[in-house]
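An instance follows:
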Amino acid sequence: MSDIVIVPTGTANIASVAAAFRRLGVEPTESTRSDEIERAAGVVVPGVGAFAAAMDRVDSTRLRVALTERINEGRATLVVCVGMQLLCAASEESPGIAGLGVIDDRVERFDSEERVPQLGWNRVEPPRNSRFLEPGWAYFANSYRLRQAPDGWAAATTGYGGEFVSALERDDVLACQFHPELSGAWGARVLGRWMATTKETA
């Protein structure tokens, strides 16, 4: 099987994510099998759309435990857009729906005076000594965001009606609120740095 496994959340543009990895010389596969998620050198959880729909897909394919354990162990995992929001305990978008709970916080909608969704390019400011990120411009498509960095994670920030968390790093886990696969050469470098961890741990 491929070194990189993409988990189809049912809300993701799998084609663009897969194409980004092909441009880096890797042919990813798709899987919703927990044993393949466990064995994979790298796992990608993308998402576009609603928090509830993405979590329903995770739970219907019985991947909650496999994904949570993998992320808690710090194994090479990349989560994108709604995929990043799934790490949280809950989202204001979908009351009563439990996220993975890796981060004990709730995703909240941008303040009412801001146009939503935030759609387009915005500046990402990474933490000092970031493993995966560099300062630059990324493509966003989001109406909800994490306000503050959780304990134990290094956070990148972006401004949109105030500062919010645009990426998180811990061990070999990278969570991006932006879309690296749509962020040009800058995004390709982010993917390449994360992909290097999958070779180290394969």
The first strand starts at residue 4 and ends at 6. The CA atoms of residues 75 and 172 lie 5 Å apart.
